[in-house]
Amino acid sequence: MKILLACSAGMSTSILEKNMNTYITSKGLDIQVKAMSSGDAKANLNEYDVVLLGPQVRFMEKEFKDAANGKPVAVIPPQMYGLMQGPETVELALKSLENK
Amino acid sequence: MTKIKQSAFWKKSQVVGNKLLELAGRLGNQKHLTIIRDGFAFFMPLVIAGALSVLVRAFIFGGAGAVGTSILGWIGMATGDAVKDGNGEWGFVAGTSLAKISEVGNFLFYQITHATFDMISLYMAFGLGYLLCKGRGQDMPLIGGLVSLGAFLVATFASPSLFNAQGLLTAMIVSFASTEIFCLLQKNGRMELKMPEGVPPAVTRAFAKLLPAIIVLLAVMAINLPFTLFGYLLNTPASTAGVGDSFPASWTLGSAIYAGIQSPFISFASTKEGGLGLALLFTTGITVLWFFGLHGANILGAVFEPIFLALYTDNVNGASNIFVKATFDAFTYAGGSGATLGLIVAILIFSRNKPERELAKMSFGPGIFNINEPMIFGTPLILNMKYAFPFVTTQPILTITTYLGFTWFNIHPVTVMIPWTAPFPIGGLLATALDWKGFVLAAFNLALSFALYLPWVLMWGKRTLGETVKKETVIEAPKTTPVKNGGK
């Protein structure tokens, strides 16, 4: 599974990317995570299975949903994001893929 | 129970911020504004390249009157090849090899600046057309970008005087208008030329763009016509020989847009008071939006970025505007939106609250590079009345001290575009082409942000905030179902 993280410049999501990868490696999961700026993310939507947006760009949710062709797009809750919780974010991605 | 509390917090954010959110959402989702935002973001690597060559010219080759603070200049001082002139400014003695090296080096590195800053409207005309075509679901957006570039060139008589930031508004208007027409003309295959059997589909698709492209360029030419006619009738050239290729760029639509809209606005923005007013509007907007958890700079960027970028390129060409794009990054952000590096330091030194300290510890590293989402969402600073006052006001206050610093101490104008992740206060040194006073001002602003947050850290750091953080953040943040609550 491939998870795409998007925030304004792909900077703060890259911290989250690191934390998620630590969790993924420790669990031996087959998941790839990539953090990008919102512009790049929109251009590369097709290559990913689920899109998670940083809460600060939640106003782009509609923009992304329109572009995602039914792929799950979710906003990471602010508390989870602030503490950069890798495992919880991975769960969030899995859950939004399930609920689709 | 705590779970409920967290979603209650989130809901509060939804309710209180609803109006603002709606407005911001509309601004943030408006197609053309989104495209301007993305267009500038994609252009950034080139801007940074151009800015670095400004720095190399100043610091190594002593360009733009910086001989006294350049490596070549220092060598010259040691060898006697650089001397002070009547005004006390250092310069190379003509004819020396240092003078020649400086001249050649300056010229070569200037080409990178010239090819980026002085051509910005060309890049934008292409990029905006490309992105808009893509956004409208066109199959070959590259062609749309090229048509848009062509339309811009027609609208300016391909005159380099409008390729720089002076042509930015023209590029935006012409690019969007021509691309919209271009896309509209292709709807339902109205303009497709019938191709014989056996022609590869790719060729057919390329031909489908043929008529629309021609019509778009003709249309731009037609809009040019009145301006050209007026220009011609009012100032008929002395000789009409070879007239077709000697009309000045001022007889164009592009020039009219510049003279009628952009120029008056930019002259307002480049007055000191006008610049400060816009800058305060910008920084206050950023912190207020962030208070509601929205990426303020991102939302307002599409409107303010073109203005402050145009002012920046003016600075590169010798103007001395205080507030240009990089001024904000170098002097007001101090650890990210809301200037939170001071808050982090204040917490690390004075707060006895453990969760708060842990968060500050984690946020310190990213904070040095002006990334502060962990602070903003973790503390949280969003809708947190306890830190609302310093969070919203600190960055605007730093904007004012920046203004005063530049006004009183004659600091070198910001001519180097630094990446926004450049650490404070080194960014202040780099942005002002290595003026030590720039470093001091940035350091002062950082210290001021510390001082402005400090009373609140002392007031809340002991108990109340700690309890809030414990309940809402540290223990129960995981395992909520955010998908339903998030967004909207």
Uncertain stretches of chain A: none
Which blocks of ≥5 consecutive residues of chain B have pLDDT under 50? Answer: 1-5, 464-488
> Which strand-content bin applies to the residues of chain B?
under 5%
What is the arithmetic mean of pLDDT of chain B? 83
Would you count the extended β strands of chain B for me? 2
Distance between the termini of chain B: 24 Å
Shape call of chain B = globular
Secondary-structure element order of chain A, as H and E? EHEHEHEHH
H and E string of chain B: HHHHEEHHHHHHHHHHHHHHHHHH
Which percent bin holds the helix content of chain A?
Answer: 40-55%
Number of helices of chain A: 5
Determine the number of helices of chain B (DSSP H or I, runs of at least 4 residues): 22
Biggest interface, which chains?
Answer: A-B, 41 and 52 residues
Output the keywords.
heterodimer, A: 100 residues, alpha/beta, 4-stranded parallel sheet, 19% strand, B: mainly alpha
Descriptive report:
- The complex is a heterodimer of chains A (100) and B (488).
- Helix content of chain A is 47%, strand content 19%.
- Chain A contains five helices and four strands.
- Chain A has a four-stranded parallel beta sheet, sandwiched between helices.
- In chain A, strand 1, helix 1 and strand 2 form a beta-alpha-beta unit.
- In chain A, helix 1 crosses helix 5.
- Chain B contains 22 helices and two strands.
- Chain B is globular.
- Chains A and B meet through helix 2, helix 3, helix 4 and helix 5 of A and helix 1, helix 2, helix 3, helix 13 and helix 16 of B.
